[in-house]
Design brief:
- The protein is mainly alpha-helical.
- The protein has two domains: 142 residues, Nitrogenase molybdenum iron protein domain (Rossmann fold), CATH 3.40.50.1980; 200 residues, MFS general substrate transporter like domains (Growth Hormone, Chain: A, Up-down Bundle).
- Strands 4-3-5-6 form a four-stranded parallel beta sheet, sandwiched between helices. A two-stranded antiparallel sheet has the order 1-2.
- A hairpin with a 5-residue loop joins strand 1 and strand 2.
- The relative contact order is 0.13.
Length: 357
């Protein structure tokens, strides 16, 4: 596979860079930007320093068996296309669904089971300085399991990356479109339980079953939309998913009155969500300048979480004014419409030409 050099990468983007280097997705030595954490001039081939300055060498190169002990790292692995290398995650890693649901759990990020991790025979374990204990990394190292500690990007680094994104109009437009339509999807996922228990008076046991139905059907959704993308392009497939999700919200407003109908709703949500998330990552990957994958995918993941309060605010205000959960869910169509309109304006072909200049 073609390997790209990253001339300069901010220290907080090391996680994505290391993922790309260690699992064979491209990447090579970067020029140091922080002597304590990024100087690789004195390292043996296949080694790198993590963000506390330790030398890390995976058991195998490329690392094919990786364990993630923090949700943000898990999402980042999938974002850079390395999800297939994950063999275990912490119990709080729930995105991207349904892909992550197939993975074994090794306990909480603060108190993971060292025995379960060892049983997975990982080539490398990723930890977060903010989510995991330093003692966990030290214990794993004593067991002969290599560990890499990383950290979430700071505001200054995000600001620099945002300014750089502004140089690529198609990339920026797609990022805005994704934040809009994905916020509606994530809000529906977060508030579906409230709708089921308060509007339909469903017991929690039935709600849990509906979640399982949604996750299971999401696998077929991802496969189906992938096939659709091959026929009509990924962008058009995502546009179809946004239209489909709009229809789902209208169906919820007009027709979901019984637990059985809610199960149908759960299946439809899983079908659309599974396709839109996977294809969105695929499109964004095409619009990233060579050598900046780590920074841009970090922004992609962080920005997703950074706007996740917009949908719930609109949902809450709509409910306060109407006292109707149905109308509150319907109000999220504004995000889908805005995201659809922005995505229509994205020229993926032009975007790929822009980043090649």
């Amino acid at each position: 596979m073609h390997r790209r050099c990253v001339a300069q990468v901010a220290p907080a983007a090391i996680a994505a860079l290391v993922v790309m280097s260690f699992v064979g997705l491209g990447g090579c030595r970067r020029a140091p930007t922080d002597a304590a954490t990024t100087d690789t001039t004195d390292l043996a081939p296949g080694s790198v320093r993590d963000e506390i300055g330790r030398v890390v060498t995976p058991r195998a190169l490329p690392a094919r068996r990786v364990v993630s002990l923090a949700p943000n790292i898990t999402e980042l692995m999938f974002a850079v296309g390395a999800g297939a290398q994950l063999v275990g995650v912490d119990k709080y890693s729930d995105q991207p669904a349904p892909e992550v649901d197939r993975l074994p759990r090794v306990g909480s990020n603060y108190e993971p089971s060292l025995e379960r991790i060892a049983g997975l025979a990982p080539d490398l374990v990723f930890l977060s300085k903010s989510a995991n204990k330093r003692e966990t990394a030290e214990a794993l190292e004593r067991m002969g399991i290599p560990t890499f500690l990383t950290e979430t990007p700071g505001l200054a680094e995000m600001g620099r990356t945002l300014r750089d994104v502004g140089r690529y109009p198609q990339t920026l437009k797609f990022l805005i479109a994704y934040l809009l339509y994905n916020d509606a999807i994530q809000t529906v996922l977060a508030q579906a339980g409230v709708f089921a228990t308060e509007e339909l008076k469903m017991p929690l046991s039935s709600l849990a079953l509906a979640v399982l139905v949604s996750q299971a059907i999401g696998v077929f959704g991802a496969t189906g939309f992938n096939q659709l993308a091959r026929l009509i392009t990924a962008k058009r497939a995502v546009l179809c998913s946004v239209v489909a999700f709009t229809a789902v919200l209208i169906y919820t407003y007009l027709a979901v009155d019984t637990p059985l109908q809610f199960f149908v709703l759960a299946g439809l949500v899983g079908l659309v969500m599974g396709g839109s998330q996977a294809l969105s990552r695929s499109i964004f990957a095409q619009l990233i300048p060579h050598g900046k994958e780590a920074e841009y995918f970090g922004l992609y993941e962080i920005s997703d979480k950074g706007t996740s309060w917009l949908g719930p605010i609109v949902f809450g205000l709509a409910y306060q004014f109407t006292m109707s959960y149905r109308f509150a869910i319907l109000s999220l169509i504004v995000f889908l419409a805005a995201g659809f309109a922005m995505l229509v304006r994205v020229n993926v072909e032009q975007g790929t030409r822009d980043i090649a200049v």
